[in-house]
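Q: What structure does this chain adopt?
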Amino acid sequence: MKIVFGTDMGGIPWTEPIAQEFSKMVEFGMQPMDAIQSATSRASAMLDIQGKLGVVAPGALADIIAVNGDPLRDVKVLQDVQFVMKDGKVFRSN
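A:
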């Protein structure tokens, strides 16, 4: 079965952060790495653009996030992104 992260998951109000989908996936049986890959490499494969998105590699379009903690131990840390790095520049919300 192929499962990817997306806005059509349902189960949470549209006004709340979509990052909650990670913890829902884990709650319903996925391993944390599988949930993370559902939003990265597996999503790019479903869109037939693997190697271009969903990976950190030379020539790929990658935004990198930083969180406080290890998402493989607690996937909920992905709900509190500290910064995003895009094109080598760091963006913070505060």
